[in-house]
Each structure stands twice: as C-alpha cells, then as structure tokens.
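Support case: zinc ion complex. Customer-provided input:
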Amino acid sequence: MRKRVALILCAAIGLLAIGISNASAQNQPLRIIAFGAHPDDNELRLAGTAAKWAALGHQVKFVSVTNGDIGHWREAGGPLARRRTAEVQETAKILGITAQVLDLHDGELEPTLENRRTIVRLIRDWKADIVLGHRPNDYHPDHRAVGQLVQDASYMVTVPFFCPDTPPLAHNPVFLSYEDNFTRPNPFRADIVVSIDDVLDKKLAVVEALPSQFYEGGANGGPQFVPSDEAGKAKRRNDVRESFKRRFMATATEFRDKLREYYGPERADKVQAAEAFEISEYGRKPNAEEIKRLFPFYAAR
Ligand SMILES: [Zn+2]
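Agent response - structure generated as follows:
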C-alpha cells in the first residue's frame, strides 16, 4: 500500500515537472551548457545559435573537455593548449558567452567515472536547462567519449547521492546532440533547426579567431596553408571563410523540410545558413511548445 502511495506521489511530481525547467520562472534567462571535445568543436556547431541566445540575455557556456594539445601539425603540448585556450576565450568575447577549457590531454579522453563526475558537476553548477554535445558515434575517439559522458550524465544530474558535494538539478535538462555525417548505427536526425543568417558574420568571425585550427589547418595542416606573402595570406583567409560558409549553408539545404516546419515555407525557403540538433532520448523530452520557449527565434518579426 505504502509503495502504491509512493508511486502515485512520484507520478504526480513527474507530471508537475513536465514543462518546467531549471530557469524557474518564464522570464528567467535560459541556461545552456555545451560540451565539445576540443577547443573549436562547440564553436563550429553552435556559435550561431549561441550568439542568438546571448543577444536575448540567455546564459551560454562552452566547455572544451580536452585542452587540444595535439591539435596542430607543427606545435604541441602546453604551449598549444595555452594558445587554443586563448583562441576560444577570444571567440567567447565575440559571442558574448562564457568558455572553459578542461586540462585533459587531447586524443586521450576516456568515458571514465571520474570524467563523468566532472561533467555532472559542471551541468549542475551551471543549473542547465539545455545541455549539448557530440553524438556517441562521431568519428573522433574524443568526440565519442564526450558523447558517452554527456549521455551518462543525462540522468545522473538529478540523482542526489551521485556527487553529493554538488546539489542535484530539480529538473532534468533537455539534452541535444550536434549534427554529424555518420550513419552507423544510425544517422543524425535533425529535430531542431535554427536559421543563423542574422549571425552568420559573427560565426565566420569565430572561425577566423581560431587560426591554429582553420587558417593553419590544425592537426592535418602543413606549411602549405601558411603563405608568407600578403596576397597568399588574403587568399587563404578568404578560402577558409568561403569553405565554412558553404558548410553552414549545406545544413540549411539538407534540413529544408524541417526549417519549413519551424518557420513556415515562405520564411524557411529564404534561410541560407543553419545549425541543427537532435534531441536525446535520455534527458527531458520537450514538446513543440517547450522547444519554442527554449529556442525563442521562430516567431516572425
Ligand atoms: Zn574535435
């Protein structure tokens, strides 16, 4: 009998929790935390939407789970980690957000219990309404580890005696995955697509503020990407900018049908560049109304 009462109580509390987020009142700023494996991953996949949230007064934090210390063809170790940390701090200024780089080695990240605790504490400390990360079948072992870690945190953030030193969240956040092209065991599904046309220049400025990765080519770059003459430098800058512009535009083209659902056909067909996200099965599942509250960009001006 007692068990039954407890069950009914649990169900009632569960029902009450539906539609409520950690930003307790409707007018509170949303709190978003994003986990990328390296100091450029969140920036490539979320900078546009992050800029839009920040412009509306919402609180966004980008966490790079590794320090990126092998992500270059010419330099490595502490000096590279320091350089890449400075790069993402610069991009955070452009976007109006907060950025943190964890001091874990690039290329060596594992979904350990210790790292799970770190992720859970970061999500709780930020009082997140939305958590983003890679899918666990992304190409890079560090990306897969982040996907696994975020997935493993997605229920534990509410469990009070897991990491009891950090208060649990009263409401499970919505967990979202970044777009990728990998198909096994399942392809990315675009549940939410956001037009970033109004902030495309900002996102391209972010790309430009990460020269170790894009202008110089990162781990697979080489001296051929770093011309010494002014004309060569200008051409290289332009090539990088245009290639990323095409990439951000490809997302809008690929998920045009989804854009139509959110924006209506007339507005959607004019969208040039976009960012797309998949809703995780493990966190809170937002309904259409909550998606519009968490992504307050769809109403026509
Ligand atoms: Zn990466």
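The pocket of zinc ion is lined by residues 37-38, 41, 140, 143 (CB under 6 Å).

Case will auto-close in a few days if no follow-up is received.
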